[in-house]
Specification:
Rossmann fold; 3 domains; alpha/beta; 4-stranded antiparallel beta sheet; 6-phosphogluconate dehydrogenase C-terminal fold; Alpha-Beta Plaits
């Protein structure tokens, strides 16, 4: 691949363009908002000048509601040898293209499983897709050349290709992406109505659950409108669990011993099922999730504190597998939780203490 056209310079489009441009591909950028394309070009994602000749690959990175029409227009113009989209739903755009009578041999639907709470070109990074799954949904009509171009794009973005049926993909993202967004928003909405005293008690758990609730509602309305059926199916099953859990909690509050025992059993069941589901979430590098031990370190709110901890961990020969920061309410301090292999935890704690860090049990 020598040339590419990226249509839509939001977070995903600009990030893909940055990755391609950084690996020597000549990238052309276009967007309905010319200022967005100029911003992406200024960031080094390519040029906002139109291509003079047909490019190798056109990447359509527009909202799902507009994906099919933009693809069809690019195909009519003969803009590229191959065309793909990066919309978060796959079945709908493909059916719309079929209804328009479009020749699908030069097209493949794709979806990189990466994103941020922020949108727009200024949020883009060349490493957004690194190590992340990138779904490809070829059909029997997809040319081998186009599939190879898509695989080359995934490789240049350092993502991991995953081939799926389009409708199976939409059911999958309803479970692992779209429903979590709604549930996170529902929990966060309770905070909007909560007493200030309760809000001040927020810890890492509520921060983890509500992180994605900061996402752009307009963007998510477009995504959910394109995949409402599968999301509703998952939410219906979740609602059944919620109803059962509410009844179980009422039972725990009952004066009847039998109802309390039944309630406790039901609550334990949902917690254990949650354990079983969490274990299936892929861990580092897509492998089975590892069990890490946490070394908690108290740090001050000063520049360079985190860098100093990582440097001291490196001197101790310990690799930090993951990290979380919990800020202390009303204090200029925080608790850094360093996740490491269990065999390294004691050595890291001792090494950090020797260097003057305050370790918390």
């Amino acid at each position: 691949m020598r040339t590419a056209l990226v249509i839509g310079t939001g977070l995903v489009g600009t990030s893909a363009a940055l990755a391609l441009a950084g690996r020597g591909v000549h990238v052309h950028l276009t967007d309905n908002d010319a200022a967005s394309a100029r911003t992406a070009a200024a960031l080094g994602a390519g040029t906002d000048e139109p291509p003079k000749d047909r490019v190798d690959l056109a990447v359509v990175a527009v909202p799902p509601a507009h994906t099919a029409s933009v693809l069809a227009a690019a195909m009519r113009d003969g803009a590229a040898r191959g065309y793909l989209d990066v919309a978060s739903v796959k079945g709908g755009p493909r059916r719309e293209l079929e209804a328009l009578g479009t020749d699908l041999s030069s097209y493949i639907g794709t979806h990189p499983m990466a994103g941020k709470e922020r949108s727009g070109p200024l949020a883009a990074t060349a490493d957004l897709f690194e190590g992340r799954p990138w779904v490809l949904t070829p059909t029997r009509d997809t040319d081998t050349e186009v599939l190879n171009l898509a695989l080359e794009l995934v490789a240049l973005c350092r993502a991991v290709p995953v081939v799926m049926d389009a409708d199976a993909h939409d059911r999958a993202v309803a479970l692992v992406s779209h429903t979590p967004q709604l549930v996170s928003s529902m929990v966060a909405a309770r905070l909007a109505e909560a007493d200030e005293t309760a809000v001040r008690l927020c810890g890492q758990g509520i921060r983890d659950v509500t992180r994605i609730a900061a996402s752009d509602p307009r963007m998510w309305m477009e995504i959910l409108s394109a995949n409402p059926g599968p999301v509703a199916d998952v939410l219906a099953r979740l609602a059944a669990d919620l109803d059962e859990t509410v009844r179980a909690l009422r039972g725990l509050h009952s004066d009847e011993e039998e109802r309390r025992r039944a309630g406790a059993g039901a609550i334990e069941d949902v917690l254990r099922r949650g354990n079983a589901g969490r274990v299936r979430v892929p861990g580092k590098h897509g492998a089975a999730p590892a069990v890490y031990e946490t070394v908690a370190v108290l740090i001050g709110d000063r520049p360079g504190e985190l860098a100093a901890i990582f440097a001291d961990a490196g001197r101790a020969g310990v690799n930090i597998e993951d990290v979380r920061i919990e800020h202390a309410t009303g204090q200029q301090a925080g608790l850094v939780q360093l996740m490491v292999e269990p065999s390294a935890a004691a050595a890291l704690g001792a090494a950090l203490q020797e260097r003057g860090w305050s370790i918390r049990g």
